[in-house]
Amino acid sequence: MSAYLLPRPSLARASPALLLRLGFPRTVELTRCYATHGDLGGGSGPSSTPKRRNVTVLSDDGRYEWGELSGREKVARATQQSFNFVIILAGAALTVRGVCYLLYSEVFSPNSRTWQYEKAVERILDDTRCTDILGDRREIKAYGESTSNKWARNRPIATTIEKDRLGREHMRMNFHVEGPRNQGVVHVHMIKPLDKNEWEYQLLALDVKGHSRVILEQAREKPGVGQALKIFGIQWR
Q: Which UniProt keywords apply (predicted)?
C-alpha cells in the first residue's frame, strides 16, 4: 500500500507528551502578551497613581488649580499671594519716592545746579548791558561745554562744588552765551553760608572778547574776613 494512503493517527490516540508539546508555545505567547500589557502601564494597581504633594505657603508653585485645593491649602495660597502683592507695592513705592527725590534735588530745588543755571541765564537776558553786547534777547542762546561726541544734543554745564576751610560750600559754574552780535562766557561763583541753606552770589559776570567785563553780582568782602594774619613774616589763614 502506498505511503500516501496510510491513515493518520488521531489526536485521541496521541501520546500525552505530544499534546504537551503542541500546547506549550501558545501558553508562552499568552504570558508574553500579559507581561507586555503590564509594562505599558495599563494596570490599575495602586502603584500607578502618584502621591499628591501638600500645598503650603513655602511650597506652593501654582501647579494645582484652586478647585483642587483643600481649605487649609487655599488659606496658604491666599497668604502667599498677599505677601507677594505687599512686596510689589513696597518696591513700587520706594522707586517712585526715589525718582521724585532725584527730580526735586537735581531740577526743581532752588539749591540744584539746574535751577541756578536757569536763574543765571535769566539774569543775563534781563540785563540791558548784556543784550547790548550780545544782541536781541530773543535770539540769545545758552549752552554748556562742547563734547567729543558730535551727536550729543545736550552740552554739560561745567560746575564744581567744594568746601573751604570753614566748611562753607562753594559752587562755580561756567557756560556759554551766543547772540546775533557776539558770544561770550558767563562766570558764576556762589557760596552757601553756614547759617543758611541757600546759595548767595559771590560773582556773576559776562566776558565777551573785545568788551569790558560786565559784572552783574559781586559780593563785597566783609571786614576781617579773608584777611591773612601775618606773624613773623608768615601768613596764617
A: Membrane, Mitochondrion, Mitochondrion inner membrane, Protein transport, Transit peptide, Translocation, Transmembrane, Transmembrane helix, Transport
User: Counting beta carbons within 10 angstroms of the beta carbon of residue 179, is it exposed (0 to 12), middle (13 to 18) or buried (19 or more)?
Assistant: buried
Query: 3-state class of 59 per DSSP?
Result: coil
The rounded Cα 69 to chain-centroid distance in angstroms is 37
Domain boundary among 53, 81, 108: 108
| Predicted model pTM | 0.54
Residue 229 covered by a domain: no
Could you tell me which of 159, 110, 116 has the C-alpha nearest to residue 124?
116
- Tell me the residue range of the domain where 197 lies: 113-218
Please check whether residues 169 and 193 belong to one and the same domain. yes
pLDDT reading at 220 higher than 50: yes
Of the candidates 82, 91, 92, the one whose C-alpha atom is nearest the C-alpha of residue 60 is: 82
CA distances from 229 to 60, 136, 167, 219, 226 (A): 76, 49, 19, 22, 9
Match 483642587 to its residue by C-alpha cell: 68
> Is residue 93 predicted with pLDDT exceeding 90?
no
Cell of 132: 547790548
The per-residue pLDDT for range 145-202, each reduced to its tens digit, is: 866 655 545 677 888 999 999 999 999 999 999 999 999 999 999 999 888 888 999 9
Q: How many residues does the chain have?
A: 237
Q: Which DSSP symbol is given to 179?
A: -
User: Residue 8: phi, psi to the nearest 5?
Assistant: -80, 140
